[in-house]
Specification:
The chain is an alpha/beta fold. 34% of the residues lie in helices and 25% in strands. It has 9 helices and 14 strands. The strands form 3 sheets. A 6-stranded mixed sheet has the order 1-2-3-4-5-6, with helices on one face. α5 runs antiparallel to α6. The radius of gyration is 18 Å and the shape is globular. The structure holds zinc ion.
């Protein structure tokens, strides 16, 4: 497949990314989770891009803080989870499991992935194998469960695991190095219930430190690699997931 489209990352705040999807002609753009309007507007203006839609995964302010200003400036529609209508009043389209959003050349299927928040959704583009997953999964980790249960968090990660292995995961935070520290604590613990592929983890660690030393992001994640290294994807059941999440919360 010829790759005609690409995704750019705009770092905002301490460790968030806003994703900008750019079409092959370099004219149209879609943004995901704009927590801050200023840097996004500046980026779009500099590249002479027209913003055609804003996609939102969940209602936390670091994901929606720039929505109103961007909508006002560019006059584009906003897509958001149906379960968060109250928290995201700026939205025009409410999305639920199985809905399809066509924004040519992209087509997103909506996955409901509760846990971090109850209404959390992800945008899955099957053709490009891109997943915009907000705060559900991170490099070698997963999002805190602010609203959902461990059962929901576990089930949501299992759904991601079922996507094609070549999937690129665009998660919103640069937490991978911190999560690598957690993986090492876990590996060095006696009778740890989770044992990932230690060689794969070392390879991951090498590549990660090279990228971060060069000032490059660790995102997008590769699902095929997370599958063999991310302890939260390796958890066998909701109980193991709970054990990991509670241990991670104490770090
Ligand atoms: Zn969040």
């Amino acid at each position: 497949m010829v790759k005609n489209e690409h995704v750019e990352l705009i770092p905002i705040f301490d460790d968030n990314y806003v994703f900008v999807l750019i079409d092959n002609a370099g004219k149209k753009a879609v943004v995901v989770d704009p927590g801050d309007a200023g840097p996004v507007t500046e980026f779009l203006r500099a590249k002479k891009l027209d913003l055609t839609a804003i996609l939102v995964t969940h209602h936390h302010s670091d994901h929606i803080g720039g929505v109103a200003a961007l909508k006002n400036t560019f006059g584009c529609p906003v897509y958001a989870p149906e379960k968060n209508q109250k928290q995201i009043p700026q939205a025009d389209h409410w999305l639920k499991e199985g809905d399809v959003v066509k924004l040519s050349p992209w087509e997103f299927t909506i996955l409901e992935l509760p846990g971090h928040t109850l209404g959390h959704i992800a945008y899955w583009d099957q053709q490009h194998k891109w997943l915009f997953s907000g705060d559900v999964i991170f490099g070698l980790g997963c999002g805190r469960l602010f609203e959902g249960s461990h059962e929901q968090g576990y089930a949501s990660l299992q759904r991601i695991k079922k996507l094609p292995p070549q999937t690129l995961i665009y998660c919103t935070h640069e937490y991978t190095e911190r999560n690598l520290d957690f993986c090492r604590i876990l590996t060095n613990q006696d009778n740890t219930p989770i044992t990932g592929d230690s060689e794969a983890l070392e390879l991951y660690a090498n590549e990660l430190s090279n990228r971060r030393d060069l000032g490059l992001p660790s995102v997008p994640l590769k699902l095929s690699i997370e599958e063999s290294t991310n302890p939260f994807l390796l958890a066998q059941d909701a109980e193991q997931f709970r054990y990991l999440r509670e241990l991670r919360n104490r770090q």
